[in-house]
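Researcher: Next sequence.
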Amino acid sequence: MTTIYTGPAHTVLPTSASAPTLTPTLSQSLAQASALSGLTSVNPSGNGNNSQTSWYEALAAAWGSVLNNQANNIATLSNTIGAGSNDPASITNLTAQTLEFSFDATSASTSITESGDGLKQLGQK
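Model: Next structure:
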């Protein structure tokens, strides 16, 4: 059984007039999934509930974790702007985070679909 370490390395996302938000980087989250092989123990949510999953499920869970973190960042920035901090830097940061979420969502969909298609083709042989 392999356990992937979800260590302290994080990206600091600045928010206007508040403490920085720590989130795992995209490469850290995806490294968890790509390092897995066969049945392994993975905990992408960090909640302490390890379960047996395949690498394909781990990939989907890692992408879900990335998208959840990015959505939380967007919600936080949106709330900050809604509370009156609507300076150009905050709005630009929100726009950038939203575009990153869109890119991540497209990448997640593509990687999961293509991996699934590959597994399907292997199963048919």
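Model: The longest strand covers residues 11-13. The beta strands are 11-13, 21-23, 40-42, 51-53.
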